[in-house]
Structures are given as C-alpha cells and as structure tokens.
Amino acid sequence: MKSRYRTLEHLRQIPADEVLANHEPDVALNILLDHCGRSTDRWEALAAAMTFDYDDEKITFGQLLDSLDPAPASAQAT
C-alpha cells in the first residue's frame, strides 16, 4: 500500500532507507534525478552516502539530499 503523502516536505522527514527502499522508491528516484541532474559531483556524493551503514546512523531523506550539496551548483567545475 502506497502512502498518500508524496510531498517533498513530508519525504524529507522520513529515514532515507525507508524512502529509498520501502516507502516511495519511484517518487524518491524522480526527486534524486531532479536534484542531481547532470552533476557528477552530486551522483558521486549520493553513491558515497549510500555506503553508510544506516543501522548505525539513521539519516532522513532530507539530510541525504542536503549532503549532496557541499558547494553551490554554479560553483562546480570540471
């Protein structure tokens, strides 16, 4: 059964592993595609974030998204 709550504001408050694996993976994928776009830095940051052991440290989906932005997109080079 899918949640009726699919707003970004709501999903940002849920643990990242639940959003990505159980809660709304199709919605999360679209958000990640929009957020990361063509930025290889953001995709690399996402890959690095996904290697963390979520059993030790639960982070929210919002914290995951925020961790992908160490620098403003306009300042990224390469």
Describe the structure in your own words:
- With 78 residues, the protein is mainly α.
- 53% of the residues lie in helices and 0% in strands.
- The protein has five helices and no strands.
- The chain has helices at residues 8-11, 16-23, 25-36, 40-49, 61-67.
- Helix 2 crosses helix 3 and helix 2 (16-23) packs across helix 5.
- The chain is globular and about 30 Å long.
Number of helices: 5
Helix content: 40-55%
Major sheet attributes: none
Tell the overall outline: globular
Order of helices and strands: HHHHH
Topology, number of strands: 0
Task: Give the CA-CA distance, first to last residue.
Answer: 43 Å
Q: What integer is the average pLDDT?
A: 77
> What's the alpha carbon Rg, rounded to whole Å?
13 Å
Structural class: mainly alpha
Helix and strand arrangement:
Layout: H1 8-11, H2 16-23, H3 25-36, H4 40-49, H5 61-67
